[in-house]
Amino acid sequence: MAVSLLANDVSDLCIGKPAVRRSLPLSAAAGDLAAAVRKGPRAAAAVCAAVTGPRGAVVGRAGLADVLCLLCASPDALARPAAALAKPVSALLPKDGEGEVRRVDPRSSVLEALDAVLNGAQVLAVPLRSGGGRKKQLGGVAAGVAGDFCWLTQEDLVRYFLNSISLFYHVAARSVSSLGLVSADYLSVRPDEAALSAVPLIRASIAAETAVAVVSADGHLVGEISTAHLAACDETAAAAIATLSAADLMAYIDYFGSPPEHILRSIKAGLKAKGLDAMLELMEDETMTSFSFSSSSSSDEDTGRAHLRRPSSGSFGRRSTEEPVVCSPASSLVAVMVQALAHRVSYLWVLDEDDDCRLAGIVTFADVLRVFREQLQ
Asked: Nearest-CA neighbor of 112 among 34, 184, 229, 11?
């Protein structure tokens, strides 16, 4: 089993993957990164831009969720959003190495790529080279040297193992509970808590490739605040984070682009009450989305979407199209993999049917990959 799987190298997982086209230097402004990301497609891997350092070597990855966290990081940032957006992209990158981008040689083994991800790399940057066949195209570029590259994600590795799932028949049909994959160590917030208080949790969820669960007092999953949802917004969503509750922020995100008038009134009233006049101007300025701050230049399915209990105190209500993806403790490993890949998420919330469907934990791609790593010992 190990021989047939590990005979492949990283380049085999990159066949057909496009080169990363959106990149900015460390010195670029956060506002420019937001503008660059908004111009691109909304595919799961495209909600971020690469960040390059000396000689153009990729050193990180950041997106709109990072920009929103920056805008909400302090009272000063909220009071002076233009100054916050003018900060360099380097301010968006994690200081402790969590969620880091790691550049790997395309000739590295799948096992080396797997170990890199399990040791903390959020995404792998695999160099590309023009000319010749695919093997030549991906070979001969040393790690850390500038040039074209593609992203290799946890999703790519999970799909790789799913394609060979018959080799893991002894664990594929086992429940995620029996495999010890249901973790109670998840990020969560109460529906009535201020969304602003969840900003540190949102930062942590970006690094962990998960989301922040919104959980009622009786333990039911109300919804989630995810990077993918925030990526559908723009900088003005910081105003919603600064003024709304967690439950109402979910409603705002669901209706972003055409939110009901009463949602906008509530946000504007909150900004005025907090004296955040500059943030209010940002929200109302339609030209802000095209302003430059730099000083230099797979398919969804319905299965697994939860029909969740909404708190009766919610003031806005939500659309039902953005429900979290859930499974049960009895779901098999292969079912969870298929479900997550179909919905383009890297985690599933686990609801315990024997406990009135209360939230029991979370299953992540990282934990799923650990199972396969153990089988390759």
From this structure: 11
**Number of alpha carbons in the 13 Å side-chain half-sphere of residue 366:** 15
**How many Å apart are CA 163 and CA 172, to the nearest integer?**
12
Residue 75: pLDDT above 70?
A: yes
Q: What is the CB neighbour count within 10 angstroms for residue 242?
A: 24
* Segment 237-278, tens digit of pLDDT: 999 999 999 999 998 988 876 777 888 889 999 999 999 999
pLDDT of residue 295 exceeding 80, the answer is no
Judge contact between 329 and 142, C-beta under 8 A: no
Name which of 322, 347, 324 is nearest 336 in CA terms.
347
Residues 6 or more apart from 49 whose CB is under 8 A from it?
Answer: 22, 23, 24, 33, 36, 37, 61, 62, 63
Residue pair 49/31 in contact (Cβ under 8 Å)? The answer is no
Q: What is the pLDDT of residues 306-358, one digit of tens each?
A: 444 444 334 444 444 468 999 999 999 999 999 999 999 999 999 999 888 99
- Compute how many other C-beta atoms are within 10 angstroms of the C-beta atom of residue 142: 9
Q: Using the 8-state DSSP alphabet, how is residue 36 labeled?
A: H
Residue 213 parent element (H or E): strand 211-215
Taking Cα atoms as reference points, which of 120, 78, 118, 144 lies closest to residue 282?
78
80 pLDDT more than 50: yes
Q: How far apart are CA 128 and CA 67, in angstroms?
A: 29
Task: Tally the residues of the chain.
Answer: 377
Distance, in Å, from the CA atom of 281 to the CA atom of 372, rounded to the nearest integer, reads: 51
